[in-house]
Amino acid sequence: MAKVSFLGLGVMGYPMAGHLLKKGGHDVTVYNRSPAKAAQWVKEYGGKSAATPKEAAQGCDFVMMCVGNDDDVRSVVYGDTGVLAGMKKGAILVDHTTASANIARELHQKTKEKGIGFVDAPVSGGQAGAVNGQLGVMCGGEQADFDRAKPVLDAYAKMCALIGSPGAGQLTKMVNQICIAGLVQGLAEGINFAVKAGLDAEAVVGVISKGAAQSWQMDNRARTMLADEFDFGFAVDWMRKDLGISMAEGKRHKAQMPLVALVDQFYGRVQERGGGRWDTSSLIQPLQKP
For the chain, which domains are there? Predict the structure, then answer.
């Protein structure tokens, strides 16, 4: 059992923190910008809540974060009430936020100066993966820090791997989002074509999902796309944030991303329709209803 804190109780962080306590058996303290959400978590799972990131981090062996973006990460890490003000030497900071590789490298340097370990560890698997403890966790950092953190991360991981040096986890998450963007757009166009051609789209998906076209997106989103249901899942606003990070990093490495740039524009159309909080599978909506 370790003493652990978890900062950020959104749709991913809330169940992830719960797994640390229920499945991992750890002593867990949570922090959330909205205290009511932290109180709700404590009522559901037990554990404790703290009023500031610093208070949550004090005495902990591991501090996990899952917040919004680079600025959000800095807001909970730095300053008089930030986690670095409360973490003890030898502890490890694990960042599950999908953020830039630059912030990961920055945090690695800042934590190392204080004798604290760091692992950037964005996740994939969506809300269902978080709830079921079946996330893919892609990590960057030093081997010794990863080796210490992995048994704790396994509380909610289906797969947890060290990809490379600090920032490698974030770069891998960019690859993940790049691939998803193309898959969802292809699935949207395929389903829309099936409907326009007068086919039984459910029957079509039932057949092609057993062949080379099969994907997680097809298995988990084809039915809801056909039903015009998008009020769930990974929000378009978040996906555009992630794709923006990916394209900026791609530009730095001179990696061409014409498909990602195009799909990002399509997501912009969804936002214009008021679908910023819709699931990413809503790419089909502008095709169904031009």
Answer: 3-165 (3.40.50.720), 171-288 (1.10.1040.10)
How many other C-beta atoms lie within 10 A of the C-beta of residue 135? 27
146-192 pLDDT per residue, tens: 999 999 999 999 999 999 999 999 999 999 999 999 999 999 999 99
The pLDDT of residue 134 is 97
What pLDDT score was predicted for residue 201? 98
Q: Is 158 a catalytic residue?
A: no
pTM: predicted TM-score of the whole model, two decimal places: 0.95
Find out whether 146 and 162 touch, Cβ atoms under 8 Å: yes
Annotated catalytic residue, options 37, 43, 88, 173: 173
